[in-house]
Amino acid sequence: MNSKSKIITCFIVFFILLAGFAKGFSDTLQFHYSKSIFSSGNYSQNYFNPDISWHNKYQANSDSVMAFWGSTTFLVWTTDAWHLLQMIEFMSWMIALLLALRLGYGSRPFIIGAAISLYLIFHLGFWLAYDWLLLIR
């Protein structure tokens, strides 16, 4: 493996770790918001609290009129933390996949060890966000 391939492989690992972190972060907001660091402190409840933040997609006093063009579709990631994190997770997976294809992994036989390693890297990122960094101790 040449140095360019090693660098690209490092980026693949980084983006899969980032995808796991984003997933853990979004699950923390969705399922354990009250125990997270975002439920107290100087964090915007309108942006981080999933019970409130989903309203940002819509105009005030409406659950059906878009707040701005695209706020309920392709620009929904700009409305609250949960949707932003979902976009980061998805884009991280896409970038990692494109980098892997660039290295030619799509034409090589499936390597079970690599798949398990990347799965563990994803879950390391998830664990860091979900169980360790974002919950109040």
What is the overall shape? globular
User: Approximately what portion of the residues adopt beta-strand conformation?
Assistant: under 5%
Query: Roughly what percent helix?
Result: 55-70%
Uncertain residue ranges: none
Radius of gyration: 18 Å
Overview of this protein structure:
The chain has 137 residues and is an all-alpha fold. It has one domain. 60% of the residues lie in helices and 0% in strands. It contains 5 helices and no strands. Helix 1 (3-32) runs antiparallel to helix 4 and helix 1 packs across helix 5. It is globular and about 55 Å long. It starts with a helix and ends with a helix. The model has no long low-confidence stretch (mean pLDDT 87).
Features:
137 residues; mainly alpha; 5 helices; 60% helix
Give me the secondary-structure topology.
Layout: H1 3-32, H2 45-48, H3 50-53, H4 81-102, H5 112-133
Helix pairs in contact: 1-4, 1-5
Brief overview:
This protein is mainly α and 137 residues long. The protein has helices at 3-32, 45-48, 50-53, 81-102, 112-133.
